[in-house]
């Protein structure tokens, strides 16, 4: 394998921006799969970007070199929303936040919450059934609403029925963040005028909700299992952005994943349907893992080198932008045979390389265990209760900050 390749077709000043902008997912997968190089370079305007394909470089960026490759570039758009959260913090601040939150999000916290998750999953499915007219399809919005209800109960001990204002606040906040990510290089413009007002009112609402959760008594929930109790008022305040980030980003990722799990369930040959039906243990987890391979909700991650760094034979300069795309890696023939085929049995053994739906290393997703439990319990409940789900038909994907379905 070569060390470097340069994507073809760049324009003066714009570089590859127009092709990237018109379909970022097709552009990224295309240049990654066509090249025979560890790193493919392209230009977004005057910004030179490294798209990393090589697994040892990816592992180093997320592992030993994670402090050098900080969350930069495209992540800037999320800063007004959740800038003070674990997601963005670095160094000692990040270690402190992680230690406070880890107890709740670790395996013991999540398994303590399992029976609560199961009950809320059932209630949320019942609520959706009652809202749907006979034979009407279950839309992505219904799935978002169910996910929010489950997250609200499990994380915050709150009951978010379908008409609760939190649904609108979270969805419109996500859409504003998404929209501003499209105004390449001019993020500030999207946050002015009417949009800024809408943003501020939702942000205030979510901030107050988070404050209530952090300071008031509540039903038992995951946030109760954090080590927040030991903190003084000022320190607790610093976790407001964390709660907001769990609501906005946690809901988005789980809802996108759940949609694709249900979509795959509908499309699979009867063989797999009956396997996941009968074998309520392993087969269902394999099914979810394979869905996350083909449809990783976070399809791309960006980093920026805060100093020069040497890989084996490659020099990365300070300020260099680095992209790693779980979508492109998960469908890369270098790592997967028949990559486009849905084959859950490939996860009988854990893949040694080429799989990172929750990223890797110290900055991997803290909500991974919770997300997997929620997805499993939805699948269990749907299969065990023989519910007929008529899902809206997806005709493709919408590669924004997440990988939402494109509905017919
Ligand atoms: C299927 C569902 C989910 C997927 C696929 C997912 C994926 C990811 C990925 C890829 C990252 C790394 C992003 C980057 O480094 O640029 C991440 C980080 C993170 N995720 Fe998730 N996530 C999911 C659900 C959740 C949930 C439910 C929560 C919390 C309620 C959560 C909280 C976080 C946090 C706080 C981080 C930052 C961790 C750190 O920097 O130390 N995620 N997630």
Tell me, rounded to a whole number, the average pLDDT. 90
Helix/strand structural class: alpha+beta
Bound molecules: protoporphyrin IX containing FE
CATH superfamily of the domain at 91-293 and 360-407: Cytochrome P450
The CATH class assignment of the domain at 91-293 and 360-407 is Mainly Alpha
Our estimate of the beta-strand percent is: 5-15%
DSSP strand count: 10
What is the CA–CA distance across the termini?
40 Å
Most strands sheet: 6 strands, mixed
Basic shape: globular
Looking at the overall shape, the CATH architecture of the domain at 91-293 and 360-407 is Orthogonal Bundle
Low-confidence stretches: none
According to CATH, the fold-level topology of the domain at 91-293 and 360-407 is Cytochrome p450
Structure commentary:
With 408 residues, this protein is α+β, with helices and mostly antiparallel strands. The chain has a domain at 91-293 and 360-407: Cytochrome p450, CATH 1.10.630.10. 51% of the residues lie in helices and 12% in strands. It has helices at 17-22, 24-34, 55-62, 79-82, 91-105, 107-112, 114-131, 140-156, 165-182, 193-215, 222-225, 233-237, 240-267, 270-278, 282-294, 326-330, 368-384, and strands spanning 2-6, 37-44, 47-52, 69-70, 301-305, 309-311, 314-316, 321-324, 394-399, 403-407. The model has no long low-confidence stretch (mean pLDDT 90). It is globular. Bound molecules: protoporphyrin IX containing FE. Protoporphyrin IX containing FE (HEM) binds next to helix 13 and helix 17.
């Amino acid at each position: 394998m070569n060390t470097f390749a340069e994507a073809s077709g760049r324009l003066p000043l714009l570089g590859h921006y127009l092709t990237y902008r018109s379909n970022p997912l097709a552009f990224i997968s295309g240049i990654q799969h066509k090249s025979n190089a560890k790193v493919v370079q392209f230009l977004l305007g005057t910004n030179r970007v490294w798209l990393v394909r090589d697994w040892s470089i990816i592992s180093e960026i997320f592992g030993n070199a994670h402090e050098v490759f900080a969350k930069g570039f495209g992540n800037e758009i999320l800063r007004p929303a959740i800038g003070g959260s674990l997601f963005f913090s670095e160094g000692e601040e990040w270690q402190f936040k992680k230690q406070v939150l880890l107890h709740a999000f670790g395996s013991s916290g999540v398994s303590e919450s399992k029976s609560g998750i199961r009950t809320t999953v059932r209630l949320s499915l019942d609520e959706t059934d009652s809202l749907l007219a006979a034979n009407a399809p279950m839309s992505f919005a219904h799935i978002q609403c169910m996910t929010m209800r489950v997250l609200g109960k499990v994380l915050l001990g709150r009951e978010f029925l379908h008409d609760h204002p939190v649904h609108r606040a979270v969805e419109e906040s996500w859409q504003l963040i998404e929209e501003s990510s499209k105004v390449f290089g001019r993020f500030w413009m999207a946050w002015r005028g009417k949009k800024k007002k809408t943003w501020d009112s939702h942000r205030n609402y979510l901030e107050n909700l988070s404050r209530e959760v952090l300071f008031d008594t509540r039903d038992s929930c995951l946030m109760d299992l954090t080590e927040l109790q030991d903190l003084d008022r000022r320190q607790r305040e610093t976790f407001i952005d964390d709660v907001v980030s769990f609501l906005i980003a946690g809901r988005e990722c789980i809802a996108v994943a759940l949609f694709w799990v249900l979509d795959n369930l509908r499309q699979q040959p009867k063989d797999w349907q009956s396997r996941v039906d009968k074998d309520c243990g392993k087969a269902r987890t394999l099914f979810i893992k394979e869905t996350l391979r083909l449809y990783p909700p976070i399809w791309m991650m960006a980093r920026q080198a805060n100093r020069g760094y040497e890989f084996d034979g490659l020099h990365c300069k300070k300020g260099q932008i680095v992209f790693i795309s779980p979508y492109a890696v998960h469908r890369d023939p270098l790592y997967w045979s028949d990559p486009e085929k849905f084959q859950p049995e490939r996860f009988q053994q854990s893949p040694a390389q080429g799989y990172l739906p929750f990223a890797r290393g110290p900055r991997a997703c803290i909500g991974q265990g919770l997300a997997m439990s929620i997805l499993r319990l939805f699948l269990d409940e749907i299969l065990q209760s023989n519910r007929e789900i008529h899902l809206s038909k997806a005709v493709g994907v919408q590669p924004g900050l997440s990988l939402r379905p494109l509905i017919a």
